[in-house]
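BUG: 3D viewer hangs when loading the predicted structure for this chain

Environment: internal workstation, default settings.
Expected: structure renders.
Actual: progress bar stalls at 90%.

Input used:
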Amino acid sequence: MLERGTSALQDAWANGWALAAFSVYDLVQARATCDAAEAEGTPVVLQAGSNAFRGPGRAPLAALARATAESSPARVGLHLDHSTELEEIRACLQAGYSSAMFDGSALGFDDNVRLTRQVVAEAHEQGAWVEAELVGFGGDEDRSVTGSAPVSMTDPDDAARFAALTRVDALAVAIGNVHGMTAEPVHLDLDRLEAIRARVDVPLVLHGASGLADDEVRAAIALGVAKINVNAELRRAYLTAARQALAARDDDDLAGLLATVTAAVGRAARGKIAVYGGPGRPAADERRMAA
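Structure tokens produced before the viewer hung:
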């Protein structure tokens, strides 16, 4: 079912788990992640947005994602990720999206505040919630880039001012994280995250968690991260399964290939959900101690 409002986000934030927000490019990924949510008994977020629109187009992908969310027994939010355009955000809200991220990281502080406030006002009128960010992340959302490194860090005092001025529902933080897999491991600045958490009274969001150690992710959840974006692991599961299946067969059984890929993506999604937790499960700090 399509999850509206912030109840799942607030539940995660209050109880030491994180919503898995899966970036999807097609029906295979959308179906696989909804199936994973149903199997694990936890809410998830489908992120069908900005960069992913380049292939199928905005309206078809938005409609596909919404239909998949609505037909799932699981609680599934529909999120527009990293949008820089008000027109795109408005179109997705009208299409039934339950949340949107306005990415004003390339703007000055005052312009970012002004436009984020506008997005928050319009989204709230339609029952949707808003994520925003102050500074950007290194790497690439759609492919892993060798040698990627953090480009900036979120200042705790700036984050507090921004959250208070915009009344945003969730804040994405830059604490050493980068988009995609990297040649060398990256590590989170957990001290900075703790300082942000002490000053910011909204759920925090972690982008670029690919390749991070599970224990480091659990530590971030314990420090206020309530939504974690997942993209690279699902892409790799999808493409690896497709390559292996194609290499092992010489037929034209497309349905069989898609079933194989869907299962692989679902396994990857369930693995992430197991780390992030969910309703009725131990909080992140308890899972970290038990790991």
